[in-house]
Amino acid sequence: MTANKTKQHNKSYFETRSTNASAESFNAKLKAFRAALRGVSDIKYFLFRVAKIYA
């Protein structure tokens, strides 16, 4: 990331106080869920479980 983009991100945070922490948290939960169900061949069932647990 360039210094200019970093500066823009920092400025945006202080103006709106918004971060991507919720998206990062969801990604971590989804990664753990995928690791627990490794080898699932039914993609439709996998997406159903994700929707039921995290929706």
From TrEMBL:
Pfam families: DDE_Tnp_ISL3 (PF01610). InterPro entries: Transposase_DDE. Residues 5-50 form the Transposase IS204/IS1001/IS1096/IS1165 DDE domain. This is Transposase. It comes from Draconibacterium aestuarii. The lineage of its organism: Bacteria, Pseudomonadati, Bacteroidota, Bacteroidia, Marinilabiliales.
